[in-house]
Amino acid sequence: MVGQWTLFFIPLFGGAGILFGLAVLAFNNRDTRGATPLGGYLVTTGLYNVFYALQLWDTTPGGSLLWAQLQLPMWSSAAVFGLLFAIEYTNRETWLSPARVAALFMPPAIATVLFVLQPELFFANVRMREELSLVIMAADKRTGWWLILAYGYGVVLLGTALISLRFLRSIRVGQFRGQALLLVVGYTATIGSNALQNSFGFQVSFASLGFAVTGIIVYVAVFRFGLFTSVPVARRTILETMADGFLVVDQEGQIIDANQQAREIFGGEPVIDKPVEAVYPAYEGEIRGQQNGHARREYQRHIGDRDRVFDVQISPVAGIGGGVDAHVVRFSDITERKERERELEATKRDLERSNEKLDRFASMVSHDLRNPLTVIKGRAELLRGQAPADDVEPIEKSAERMETMIEDLLTLSRAGESVAEAEPVLLAGVVEDSWAAVSSDDVELDVDVPDDVEVEADVDRLRHVFENLFRNAGEHNDRPVRIRVGTLSDEMGSITGFFVADDGTGIPESDRDAVFEHGYTTNEDGTGFGLSIVEEIVAAHGWTISVTESDTGGARFELHTTGQR
After folding, report:
1. Phi, then psi, of 388 in degrees rounded to 5
2. Beta strand pairing status for 443-448 and 481-489?
3. Which pTM does this prediction carry?
4. Largest Cα–Cα separation, the chain
């Protein structure tokens, strides 16, 4: 085997090294969209350069023919990998399937086998001749060579067309123009170098130089524009993993981009390049009705076995000159939220009806009980002075207890209703008003609340809280009793609530959870509703209440309002 040296080796081996280096980078990022086919393209074009350099080095007909045989599958396979990269880069993965990918590689595979078994289908009259001061192989090209060349050109042209189309769209949208332009130049470099060689009949292949140029251009795209880590790929990854569907629509009403979620919303079929009206008919009307370049509406669509509701938002994409070059349409699935809203609304209506029924029932019971109670009190008054006092007093005492129970029943029926219109109220003022309503000579009250402390509350129901807590202290302890009202605060000194404490006998720890139950009382004259009313009102405000022991051994009720002031 006789070898020769040429300056062509520098770009050939140098270009191969760059291509192999980029291939390693691509395969290291194989989880990134387009990385695997790009890696395959870089490897096959690099091998093409190596095999062509070896063909130039070998000056024997048999050796040159062998290296030429190895170049053919590399060139045609590189064209297929380039197409696959273009398809993924332009978001047309739905075109691909294992069978289609295999079909694309079938012609290069068949050509390779035929080239080895029957080289005369591709070349005839193989000979060596001098060209550009080199001894190189010359041969007459046969049908097989022209067919595989045509196939390769067709595949490369299709890939170039896809990249070029993306470049034109990037100009309209004003996004990623530099990256798309570099890829267009890279693809056309390969076509141009092959066309140059075949147009002038050179035996020296300029395709290898075209591959080297493509490798350098892709290198710039990778490290200058971040092909693997750039905004386009990052945005694409984010969009594909988001639950929302996205369409990008140009000014002509064509869909120029869509993520997988959007495709699934519209039946799973490809939507890119389709008129948006054919996919989302309401688009044109929404664009005309935009306010400040934005539009929003709810959109219902039957998907699978159910109707789904989407919150659709349309936003403009600004172009180079500041005008609107495209629109982004976002589809957020709010089906579950709407269902919860309907369920909450139904629950709210049910609660309102239940509260109305309970209110009517309580009012009816109160009215029906007050009438005979008035009769009983009137008859007892007539009996006083005519019957022994020991007979009349139990009647009057029972009537009073019955009247208290009726009042508590009415209060309890309304205590748990949500506080719809809370307002800031001065805590000290409410305490003073409440004490005026239930004060007693043998019960003292100490108020340790700053005059400016406020809570957000329904003032009438807050008075019920204090009144019932004051009554509870007076009725469940031996007189005299001292009651103290103060504020609660956190470690930072912020007020978080208030307390009502007494110096009575206290509440055993084992009974502290039970004191808020309806009907629970340790006083034979009590109704058992007082503290349950307190808890209902506290819960209606969104507060909490707890029972502990006071500093003097009595009961202490702490109401936590979560720092309201």
Report:
1. -55, 145
2. parallel
3. 0.45
4. 149
